[in-house]
Amino acid sequence: MEYTALYRKYRPTRLADLVGQEHVAGTLLRALQNQRVAHAYIFCGPRGTGKTSAALIMSRAVNCEHPVNGEPCGECEACRRIAKGASLDVLEIDAASNRGINEMRDLRDGIKYLPGQEKRKVYIIDEVHMLTTEAFNALLKTLEEPPEYVMFILATTEPHKVPVTILSRCQRFDFHRVGQEQLFAHLQHLAQLEGREADEAALKLIARRAEGGLRDAVSLLDQCFVATDGKLTMKNISSVLGIVDERFMMAMAEAIAEHDGLRIVKGVELLATEGRDMRLFLQQLLEFVREQLLAGMSGKKTLLTRQRALQMLRDLVDGDQRLRFSLTPRLTLELALLQAAHLEAADK
Hints:
alpha/beta, Rossmann fold, Helicase, Ruva Protein, domain 3, Zinc Finger, Delta Prime, domain 3, 17 helices
């Protein structure tokens, strides 16, 4: 039996299923219910937040033979065709590989013909910001005066690169990063559907690693399911996610707090020897120091004082920015940690 990735297996099929995008889902649903669907939309936002899923749901909703309160029924022939990608009238175009004027001219010529299978033709153009200037110009006239049976849905992660003339002809919806609590709840739900047990701490770690991307979170969960047997725990997903042991993390934070440069260098050397991701370690360290700061502000006993934790956060955040584009990550990480340690304080 062919394996289906979790993010495809549980892809939203209704607007109500979009996680963390209630502001988008609610407005689009009201437009469908009141039959006030626009001819052109542009969905903006970070990767993996549901833009393409929403576009596909809209393409089914406007063509559904038996809509249920505006949502597609999922059972009629039109819904099934579109879900399988077999509809001749719902076209997904990747602007990254079809970015020239000729492709947009072909699109413009195809619009002249009535739908062959569905009620409306829907053109979904992904990463639309990748189109050339000439291609945008070719698309512009079509967006301005499309036939009544045509709908455009543009999707982009970089709306600032889309010409204002295009934006002004579309209804814009901004998709937000999904909150960690919502990601955690969704991961719990998927684990239950898959019949797998998972520790709360493990799922929260996966949610943090996803950084607001729902698809990233589901893909990481899928990876952990494949790589481990039985219950998901912090211990058995650590190697999958590439995270370091908490004791090592505390030892490095302690070395920084105590201005111990030699321990810091040896710790980074160990990370390099084990082939760890330097930036991932630094992000873990940042999260640990932040938790120390919050605990200190709550009056709890901590490894770091509030003043020391705040100073370390400032230095480590600066280091993370440099590490992001560094060609020598080991050296950059060493420098960031040594600067956070304020070695000059130990020399006094």
